[in-house]
Amino acid sequence: MIFLFTALYAEAYPFINYFKLKRDLQNNYFQVFSNDEALLTVTGVGKINSAIAVAYTLGRYGIYRDSFALNFGIAGSKFPQMKGHLYLINKVIDSETKKVFVPDVLVDHSFEESDLETFNHPVKDAYRMEANLCDMEGSGFYQAASKFFDAHQIYLLKLVSDSLDFEGISRDFVIQLVEEKLKEIDEFIKMIKESFKTEEVFSEEEKNIIKTLSDKLKLTASQRQILYKACLHYKVRENKGVDFLKGFFGMEVTNKKEREKAFEEVLSHLR
């Protein structure tokens, strides 16, 4: 199941028609449209509205092992040449808190990638931006979605509508802009679905190997997450198991310096 989130109905309208989504008339809180394979929620503008809608949707409708979340919407750019292009987001910056979120993009795709900065208000001055793109929902969406999904199940696609001048931005303009990109987006969604058709990425033995190695190296909580992600990337990229990590079980770690050295050596074999 794909959970799709847009801030505006104009952004959602092309998806509703393309995927033949039907409105959930029992939902009085958000505009929700769905079929057997996709569910779309119109969140409203702003990162707080986005976060509330994501948490509400995923909590109410439930998620499955092969589910994933996709935030789609128009965005502004400080570079005029980016207008009209579709970007897969590889880093999200919250302008207010300065927190940074990094999705794990494990699927092959044809999109250009970009960073994205989320503001509490429309941005008209490029000098205020740290990232190339800006919106008002991305960080709220990501933070809420990360409570339900792993990083490789969270995606953001942004379609650049303007270069911070808001010139010509209307409902009809947004609908037409999105409709022109629907086939590309549909292909991307199909690729994600295909990637989740496989069984659990790691076997029980591999999970035990990762946990045992983490325990033996006395890794911190953040290091354990880094090791898990490195193993995930390695297995997807190389299509090989991680049984070879048992070869590191004999490493002795008695202090922080030794732990850092051993940890880096393990990671070097997974890159």
From TrEMBL:
Signal peptide from the UniProt entry: none
Molecular function terms, GO-annotated: 4 iron, 4 sulfur cluster binding; DNA photolyase activity; S-adenosyl-L-methionine binding
Record protein name field: Nucleoside phosphorylase
InterPro entries, sorted: Nucleoside_phosphorylase_sf (IPR035994), SPL (IPR049539)
Source taxon at top rank: Bacteria
A GO CC term assigned to this protein in UniProt: endospore-forming forespore
Gene3D superfamilies registered for this protein in UniProt: Nucleoside phosphorylase domain
Protein source organism: Caldanaerobacter subterraneus
GO biological process, one term: nucleoside metabolic process
